[in-house]
Amino acid sequence: MNLLFIAWRNFRYRALSSFLTTLSLMLGVGLVVIVMSIYGIISEAFVRNAAVGYNLVVGPRGSALQLTLNSVYYLSQPIENLPYTEYMEFFPADERARMVSEYGGDPTLGERDGVYAGFVGEGYAIPLALGDYFGEFRVVGTTPEFFEKLRHGPDLDQRFDFQEGRALETFTPENQYFECVLGSRVAAQMGLAVGDTMNPTHGDPEGKGHGQGFAVVGVLAPTGTPNDRAVFVNLEGFYLLEGHAKPLEEDAVIVLPDRDPDDTRPPLLMIPEREVTSILVRNGNVMHAPGMQNRINESGRAQAAAPIGEINKLMSMIVGPLLSALLVITLITCVVAAFGVLVAIYNSMNDRRRDIAVMRALGARRGSVTWVILFESLIIAIIGGAAGWLLAHVAIYSAGTFIEQQTGVQVGLFSVSEFEWLLLPFVIVLSLLAGIVPAMAAYRTDVGSNLSA
Amino acid sequence: MLTIANLIKKFQQPGGGELTVLDVPQFEIANAEQVALIGESGGGKTTLLHLIAGMLSATSGSIRVDNIELTRLSEQGRDRFRASAIGYVFQTFNLLPAFSAIENVKLGMTFGSGRVDPARAMDLLDRVGLADRAHYRPKQLSVGQQQRVAIARALAGRPKLLLADEPTANVDPASADSVLDLIIDSCRNESIALLMVTHSMEVAGRFSRIERLEDINRIPALKQV
């Protein structure tokens, strides 16, 4: 019969007190594990969402973080807009000439390669135009390339799948320029499906309606990215909405587009009338990214931000400290629970002084009865810690589907966050520390006076 | 087996100063001898037992048990010695409530050599007539049965000296006889010296040697408050 067994018997004998003490520790540990897991999930979700295949976001000069938030996460307000000619700088001369020819504008734009075209190479540059809403959701004007070129998933190898319909097209006879694709959450929350019409509002969720609807041609399958809560409209249709054309400057050089006289399509905005909010860029050779980023930032007209870098800054400057504060609070909960262990065992010392004296009379040394009390703390720590850990993981696992829908992060039953392995030793040390006070009381128990009753 | 010489025990008084409780010039018990010690309440009988068991340290004098001088041992040494050589039966049994009858008996072995002999524990329970209640908790046993378990526990470590502090005081008269028989017979069978403190002349009458504390302690009981 060893000291651990004796401690276990004592633990079981005071079943209610032991249960309640262990329960408080279990809840404390569970809370810490949940906070740690949320920390891990949020970090992973932020980083994962920042990586959708492109490596730079280009937008107007200002806050790089704000640019990232509004272009990658569809949060915050756009800073300003860039002239369309800035977007054209990512293309070679022939493509620029095609744009001038199709939309109309200064023909000299098509006579040279774009400043950044060499950096992009086989990569891509996809324009985004923001500013409209559909309910609470952001409307994103873009091109069909958005769905063709971008990838998502942990390995950035998954194309956008459609749970219904198809990707938008620049022009179709039935919908003309007014096609849209809904993110999965938008479709679910707003109750729209393929064939319905989406009517955006201008400027903010309560803004004035444009009076022009977009035909829903596709609904994205859930991606676990911010794209689930966005509405993607054809950029050309977006430009044609009331109030979206930039007023022409007096000195604008414009050559009208080449149009077939029989073409019944509505005329598109000319290049000087066009603006983009941001441009998602992937370099064909990522080694060119830093050079291009420097070039853009030195241009004085625009800025280029690396989304992952901005998000890491956000995590380390704001989200990280907030979560750390939350973690500290929950760790304090653990300390309070450990203090409960101290109080529970110490309170029971009055009842067990006689038992300790009897053990001493049977030959137990002071050290032995001290260890019995410490082992009792240890038992509470191990059971409370393990049960709390398990409970938290079952809770997180139970919410796994919801977490995956919201963040795209998959959580397994035993997905362990970074510092979780340290938690049980921490709780054990804490409980042993809490056990020291009653253990010292046991150490000092006088045999004679406690047996003479 | 037990030799006490010039034993003095003083306690510190709360208001300062010392109170002498025991002053025993000479007291001996031979191997396997059985002695009843009678005396008034507050005379220091229990204190004497605690000193012999090494649960208290003497102020001065000598206590030799089985040729070991207890007064020269550290507290840890006395704990070790008590676990291996002394059995103790309390007036109030003092079974540990969290443990079953057999576990209480095993506790009597745990702190000595550290080697627990389950067969001997069960044999001892059998000898006190409680083999069928080995897994009962103390509160599930009658008062007499609890004292029997306490006796089995006191014998578990194969002591050389058994100290019994009024072991029949809290049991009914019918059980008292069997408890007394059990202690006396067990000590005789295992050649264990026995020192039993009692108020009862009837109990003391079972012993061939009866000592009055007043005869061996120079401090009168009335002076002890």
TrEMBL record, chain A:
The keyword Cell membrane applies. GO terms for cellular component: plasma membrane. It comes from the Bacteria. It holds the Pfam family FtsX. It is a multi-pass membrane protein. Residues 18-239 form the MacB-like periplasmic core domain. It is found in: Cell membrane. The keyword Cell membrane applies. The chain crosses the membrane at residues 20-42, 322-347, 368-392, 421-443. PANTHER family: ABC TRANSPORTER PERMEASE, ABC TRANSPORTER, MEMBRANE PROTEIN. This is Putative ABC transport system permease protein. Keywords: Cell membrane, Membrane, Transmembrane, Transmembrane helix. Residues 328-445 form the ABC3 transporter permease C-terminal domain. Its main location: membrane.
From TrEMBL, chain B:
GO terms for molecular function: ATP binding; ATP hydrolysis activity; transmembrane transporter activity. It comes from the Bacteria. The keyword Nucleotide-binding applies. Keywords: ATP-binding, Nucleotide-binding, Transport. It holds the Pfam family ABC_tran. Signal peptide: none annotated. The keyword Signal does not apply. PROSITE patterns: ABC_TRANSPORTER_1 (PS00211), ABC_TRANSPORTER_2 (PS50893). This is Putative ABC transport system ATP-binding protein.
